[in-house]
UniProtKB/TrEMBL annotation:
Protein's recorded name: Epoxide hydrolase N-terminal domain-containing protein
Organism encoding this protein: Planomonospora alba
Family membership noted in the UniProt record: Belongs to the peptidase S33 family.
Region (Disordered): 216-239
PANTHER family on file: EPOXIDE HYDROLASE, EPOXIDE HYDROLASE 1-RELATED
The UniProt record lists the keyword Hydrolase: yes
């Protein structure tokens, strides 16, 4: 197939047979066992781990969502919504077991709503993309990491970052903040913290740029904006671009 840059319409159209197969697999789930609750937790939060989750995703959580997935979850409604918005080592287990896929996703999505968890699990299952989505971790491990200034925000119910490993791969960490709430999808469950963190990260570069402008031109940032067309820009613009690249770095 030839590579093409042509933009063509794409629609999410899952055949009913795939949904029927999913329902059948869910009905035949073979459940694992787990320790009695009193052996798992004393009910006291331990750092970012919720009580009852010390050994991982609880059996009862997965069973509850599987029941909802089988009985009340409406994939067709979400399929229609996706059309209007954005229609565009463990992989073997999630690819073969919808309950396994659900448990794998719930590890980081449990802080969001049930419908959101089930929609993500359904998308992965119907498209069989558990493996391809996990390749990012291998590729990131082998990628050349950026040298631009980098910021990290850690949230309570996400994987806890270790600074010595982060500094090994990112040589210019200029912002490191840890928060007492929020999870892997902080844009959904702690948007205020995430927005403030991003603003704070870029603010340091805006201040540095303003100081650079004053030193080079003897004018304030406001005066510089009022400069006549054709005036030569200062080096501060490059600094701003570096900061933009930095936030998107892994």
């Amino acid at each position: 197939m030839e590579n093409s840059t042509e933009i063509t319409p794409f629609r999410v159209e899952i055949p009913q047979a795939a949904l029927d197969d999913l329902a059948d697999r869910l009905a035949r789930t073979r459940w694992t066992d787990e320790l009695p609750p009193e052996e798992v937790t004393d009910g006291t939060p331990k750092g970012p781990v919720q009580p009852g989750w010390e050994y991982g995703v609880p059996l009862g959580y997965v069973q509850r969502l599987v029941r909802q997935w089988r009985q009340t979850y409406d994939w067709r409604a979400w399929e229609a919504q996706l059309q209007r918005t954005a229609p565009q080592n463990l992989a073997h287990a999630p690819a073969d077991s919808p309950a396994g896929q659900l448990a794998w996703i719930a590890q980081l999505l449990a802080s969001t709503g049930d419908e959101h968890v089930l929609t993500n699990a359904t998308i992965y299952w119907l498209t069989n993309t558990a493996a391809s989505s996990a390749r990012f971790y291998y590729e990131d491990h082998h990628a050349e990491h950026p040298a631009e200034p980098t910021g990290l925000a850690g949230f309570a119910y996400d994987v806890t970052p270790l600074r010595r490993f982060a500094e090994r791969d990112h040589k210019a960490i200029v912002s490191w903040n840890a928060y007492d709430r929020g999870g892997h999808w902080a844009a959904q469950d702690a948007p205020d913290l995430l927005v403030d963190d991003i603003r704070g990260f870029f603010r340091r570069f805006r201040r540095a740029r303003a100081g650079l402008v004053r030193r080079r031109t003897g004018r304030s940032g406001a005066a510089r904006r009022a400069a006549p067309p054709g005036a030569r820009p200062s080096g501060g613009a490059a600094l701003g671009r570096a900061a933009v690249r930095a936030w998107s770095a892994p």
